[in-house]
## 1
Amino acid sequence: MTTPLTVRAISVDEHRDFIASQSSASFLQTPAWAAVKPGWRAESLGWFSGERLVGGALVLYRQLPKVRRYLAYLPEGPVIDWESDDLAAWLAPMAAHLEARGAFAVRMGPPVVTRRWSAEQVKAGVADEAVRRLGDVPPLERTRTGAAVAAQLHELGWRPQAVEGGFAAGQPQFNFVIPLVDEDGKPRSEDDVLKGMNQLWRRNIKKADKEGVHVTRGTRDDLADFHALYAHTAERDHFTPRPLSYFQTMYDALSAEAEGRISLWLARHGGDLVASTIGIRVGTHAWYSYGASSTEKREVRGSNAIQWAMIRDALAQGAEVYDLRGITETLDADDPHVGLIQFKVGTGGEAMEYVGEWDLPLNRALYKAFEVYMKRRS
């Protein structure tokens, strides 16, 4: 690299325009995401080669209790050239900038895939009693970029974060995605995507249509209905729901940033809301972000119908991937999480392992105290 890279704060407009110039970037790295995390101080960063903006990041700062020092967090970022064989040129000026801002440590989640498995491989792993984890199954691919990034981060003093069952402390390390383009990069047809699903998924989509399930795009006013169903789902599935205000803030922030960035979906049967979801799109990447379903009327298959509507919309918008987000690494048929994996595997997509989240301690004493604090909290 002939021109040394420099890092400095950029405006929200510069950051937004940079993200818009990328074919794909995580929605967690958009400047709008800062508004969704009000408990963190946010900063937009830019990497410059001379005067040319060549990289960007949303940095979230969380203050340590009683000390004016911060953990600098870059969820699923930064958006830089991860194929570079000189990551130090990118990461060293970032670390220096964040340390000057009062960071005692940096945590980031490079958007880099290390391994991938086909739906058939995952399904076979669940059926095999000898297989307990996805990592026990030989992958379809081990990526050179993933191996190179991990090796360079180790050399540069970054520390991989512990993962339990596939979920790190921040973002999931294992995701399930449906490619919407073929190996040559040409868009797949609806029929081709549908044929890639298993027989149960295709049958359920047909059943939902036959039963009269009606899927529509919602508006902000429908968030209250989504949230009521989401709270019902949380009680049934034993997780802590986010408040309605969280989704209202998310909807407002992402809607203001770009048209079509966030969408709300509702599946109704006979006037009853049977499923509802939130989708997000940045460039050619579409995500299924949040979902809710009714315990009643599960037989009309609203969840399958609403996913199929979202997939069709992603295809129509030119998306290259439909991301069903996190899965755990477990393939143990007795594990309660395996049902979620089986639901997603039925779409015929691929399981992806990412390089995961990594920490760089800038002040070792404070970082050690932070580790102790986090262990006590958990």
## 2
Amino acid sequence: MQEPTFLILTALAAEPAHGYGVIRAVETLSNGDVVLRPGTLYGALDRLAEQGLVEVDREEAIDGRLRRYYRLTDSGAAALAAQVARLRRNADAAEARLRRPAGGPALGPAQPGMA
């Protein structure tokens, strides 16, 4: 799963949101590293809807413009949970390797009395 897709699904995990709300949530979740343009977002939302991961929750007319809210489906929540588990396993493996000196045993937390 690509990072923008992961962040879009994450943005919709708590509650339904309209496009601009998703864009802002993704930017916040990524600490500004991922900034989606509307065309990119709506293309992704269309693809995710075709895959059954998100769906339209409702539509509202605000100042004469239609605002569409999207929500995560049960399949979308399951896909997001599976991706979280995969990323967690990968991060744990990377962390373990970082604690291990080249050719040596893994380093754990400092033992009392050891300097």
